Amino acid sequence: xxxxxxxxxxxxxxxxxxxxxxxxxxxxxxxxxxxxxxxxxxxxxxxxxxxxxxxxxxxxxxxxxxxxxxxxxxxxxxxxxxxxxxxxxxxxxxxxxxxxxxxxxxxxxxxxxxxxxxxxxxxxxxxxxxxxxxxxxxxxxxxxxxxxxxxxxxxxxxxxxxxxxxxxxxxxxxxxxxxxxxxxxxxxxxxxxxxxxxxxxxxxxxxxxxxxxxxxxxxxxxxxxxxxxxxxxxxxxxxxxxxxxxxxxxxxxxxxxxxxxxxxxxxxxxxxxxxxxxxxxxxxxxxxxxxxxxxxxxxxxxxxxxxxxxxxxxxxxxxxxxxxxxxxxxxxxxxxxxxxxxxxxxxxxxxxxxxxxxxxxxxxxxxxxxxxxxxxxxxxxxxxxxxxxxxxxxxxxxxxxxxxxxxxxxxxxxxxxxxxxxxxxx
Length: 426
Description:
The chain is mainly α. Helices cover 72% and strands 1% of the residues. The protein contains 17 helices and 2 strands.
């Protein structure tokens, strides 16, 4: 990219930062702004800042962003508290998510009968994770009960890591390793990826948490470097897993889980650092998405692609969530609300960028088109409906009075529109 393109992007980031607080009260979100801006200056618009997804730097940024997202999302969820009073997200993850993947796979095969089941599974697995930040008005709206907000918050924090093994397995089935030799060797490779990765992550996450606690308690650590230490733990988990034959991204997620459950020195600067540094990477990812991935997807899109994308945002998500929340005491309105607000965002983009763009996967263009169209529609539809539907749903809950939706739950940090994660409290 030339200096002119860099200057244009820097100016756009500055302009957005200057009015970001004013935009919080509008449907205009960061993903909308930078996806649209990326499209405008990229290959779909004015060609002011050409970006190539096969460039090594782009994939390095994508890998670092995915490591950061997986680790930090997992680290903010204390699994010990989760098992005590968060039955809604547990049901959504344990029942709703598998049903979503199965339903998505089935619809993909129906709409595209020429596709293999592995290709359909890959699309469904990539689009399974949700991103609560795209519907920020929902997870931060005080009129929405804390239990409902936290259900969406916890679900989005964990489902990207839980979907990752399915994404990897489907990708392996579509693009076997060179020299794999047989199905048994491929199975061994996949098994090592999904076992050694978590083991390495759990070990590094635990040791890292204990070391950071020790350094903080003895006041050996300078506060500005605490966040850097957490980032180092995430990258170390990734690197160690890859060195021993495991999957580094699964290791980052597992490391974040055990880190969040182990660390006791909860200095806010730690997570603020992770989010502030990660926010720049997030901006870059949405720029790449709008500048390169969206124009390419539109070139390969069809009516079937659009139909499948709409199904992923509605029936494929909402019906499984309704089934998962059966006998929870929630109203039909609450089940529909939780089902609708499952926006697809940065995890799906990164999975597609790293898996589909890098591997020689048959039908990769069609897979990429479906993922990108789904995320694009989600960015617009969920961003635009978050505030008005939150207000309407909050008014409904106020009229209902005491109900299952108002049951108290412990709270975890939320991601607001600027990328910070803060405690959710009324």
